[in-house]
Write a structure and sequence with these properties.
Blueprint: H1 23-37, E1 58-61, E2 72-79, E3 82-87, H2 94-99, E4 102-105, E5 109-111, H3 114-119, H4 125-133
Antiparallel strand pairs: 1-2, 1-5, 2-3, 3-4
C-alpha cells in the first residue's frame, strides 16, 4: 500500500527516513503552513528595520542623553544597525545640516508625527497627546 503523504524530501539521504516523514520534515511542513496561513509567531518572521525608513524621512531621536532632544532630523542612510541623520531645519544649507547630524542606533529613532513636523520640533508627551485630540 502506497502512503498518501507527499514524498519525503530527503528520501535516500535522510537517516531518519522510514516509510513516513521524519520529525524534521514534518516540523518544516508545519512552519511553512503557518507562514501560508499567517499564523506564524512574530519571532519567526525576519524583521528588517531598514525598510521602515527611507532617505529623506523626518525622524526624532528617542534617546534622552542627546543634548538637543527636541530637534527633528532627516534620515540619510543606514549601515548595519546605525543610522546617519542630519539636522532638519529651514534656512541652513544641506552641507550644514549634514555637518550638524550624527550617527545613532536605528533602534533609537522614530518617525516624526505630522504635528511635530508642523511645530518644527519634537513634542513632549503632553503636547503630543493634545495634538492628537485637536
Amino acid at each position: 500500500m502506497k502512503p498518501n503523504l507527499p514524498q519525503h524530501p530527503c528520501a535516500g539521504k535522510c537517516q531518519r527516513f522510514t516509510d513516513e516523514q521524519c520529525k524534521t520534515c514534518l516540523d518544516q511542513k508545519i512552519e511553512d503552513r503557518e507562514f501560508q496561513l499567517g499564523v506564524a509567531p512574530d519571532e519567526a518572521y525576519v524583521k528588517t528595520l531598514v525598510q521602515e525608513y527611507l532617505p529623506g524621512d523626518v525622524v526624532c531621536i528617542t534617546e534622552a542623553w542627546r543634548p538637543n532632544t527636541n530637534n527633528l532630523y532627516v534620515f540619510e542612510n543606514v549601515s548595519g544597525d546605525t543610522a546617519q541623520v542630519s539636522l532638519f531645519a529651514s534656512g541652513i544649507s544641506r552641507t550644514m545640516a549634514i555637518a550638524a547630524g550624527f550617527c545613532v542606533s536605528i533602534k533609537n529613532i522614530r518617525h516624526a508625527t505630522a504635528a511635530e513636523i508642523h511645530a518644527n520640533r519634537r513634542l513632549t508627551p503632553v503636547e503630543q497627546a493634545l495634538a492628537e485630540v485637536s
